[in-house]
Give the backbone structure.
Amino acid sequence: MITSNLYVLVDKTQKTVLTPIQELLENWNNINGLSFLDEEKLADLEWAGHPGQGWIKFNSDDLSEFTYDDVWLNISKNNIKSKVANERWKKENEILIFEGNELKLDDKTKMSLQNAKLSLTKTQSIHWKFRNGFSNLTYTQLANLYNFTFNYTTQCFGEEMRVCDLVSSATTLEELRSLDLTCSWPSTIAHK
């Protein structure tokens, strides 16, 4: 889930948020390894010389007692959308499996597949190098491989758009917190 490791730095005295929704930083104010601390230690940073401050998990009910403004909400929504985009990028660059062959899907591979599909006639075949060796592909197999990679990429972007549209629709922190931002990425295995 996209929001499982998102936090907000709060001022517990003023009951205000200090940072937009974000992942914990590796080194924040000379505190190394925030992500390894338990929720109780994160929520009260007095032990680290920051009295009245704490990191509260984005999906915690405790966050509802802190005030924020529209600018904070918009920046926070953009941070979540950026996290979704990063997840899509990782998924888009996964290893795909086509007829037992492993394919690293990057921009060069996408262009090569498109060019080969446009260049071959229906009676020709092509030797294609996969991560786990070469395979001779008929025009039909190449077309199926191209369609699989194209559809996979399109579905990844579609899922990013679906989740980002959900995030955009939220007008309050409560609405944003109530959204199911679980991404349903497509299968990396081509099915016949």
Summary: The mean pLDDT is 94.
